[in-house]
Amino acid sequence: MRKLITGMKLSLDGKMEGAEGYADWVEAWSEDYGLMPQVDACVLGGGMYPGYERYWTGIQNEPDTPAWITGNAPTPAEVEWARFAAQTPHYVLSNTLTSALWPKTRFVRELDEISALKQQPGKDIYLMGGARVTASLIDAGLVDEMRLIVYPLIAGEGKALFTTTKRRGLELRKVEQLTDGRMSTIYGAGRGNGNAM
């Protein structure tokens, strides 16, 4: 069975967005979790998808132009992700969205459809978020692994990643210190919790 793996960049106090509605402490939105070689599909929520599509389409079309969220020119890793994203099926969990610019985007309405996607042949699946979708999929026991990059700051106000309703024990699989005081951690389902969170 394919694994559903989430990757998030968050503050030390567990925020995935600041008060302004985005993580202004993140300098680039490249895939920094080492997932590209092992995934062939992406899942994200309807609240996140329109901005995601706009951001990466801009980088695909104009890789030398500053990105609209960061105001910085895309990094080589962002350009690499933009190319990967253009070729990779995206599944958007939404009850309201019905159209997308990207031809490989599909809309799913129920969590059961994500469970069915995990049963299909293929590589693992990258769950990008946002917070509500990630929490829903964790609560449904569908997330198999969590890769977090924790930034050395307390964001204060903002949107918390961990809005799940159930207590879950996790198994720490890897910790790595990155530059600028950041930490990379990988967690899997804890013992006795089955195969997923």
What does this structure look like?
It contains 4 helices and 10 strands. The protein is of the alpha/beta class and 197 residues long. It has one domain (17-119, 130-166): Dihydrofolate Reductase, subunit A, CATH 3.40.430. The chain has an 8-stranded mixed sheet with strand order 5-4-3-6-1-7-10-9. Strands 2-8 form a two-stranded antiparallel ribbon. β9 (170-177) and β10 (183-189) form a beta hairpin. α1 (49-61) packs across α2 (76-87).
Number of domains: 1
Number of helices: 4
User: What structural class do the secondary elements suggest?
Assistant: alpha/beta
Main sheet summary: 8 strands, mixed
Basic shape: globular
Radius of gyration: 16 Å
Amount of beta strand: 25-35%
Order of helices and strands: EEEHHEEHEHEEEE
Level-1 CATH class name:
Alpha Beta
Q: Specify the helix fraction band.
A: 10-25%
Low-confidence stretches: none
What key phrases describe this protein's structure?
globular; 8-stranded mixed β-sheet; 4 helices; 22% helix
In short:
With 197 residues, the chain is an alpha/beta fold.
Question: What's the topology here?
Answer:
Layout: E1 4-11, E2 15-18, E3 39-45, H1 49-61, H2 76-87, E4 90-93, E5 105-108, H3 111-119, E6 124-129, H4 131-139, E7 145-151, E8 158-160, E9 170-177, E10 183-189
Parallel strand pairs: 1-6, 1-7, 3-4, 3-6, 4-5
Antiparallel strand pairs: 2-8, 7-10, 9-10
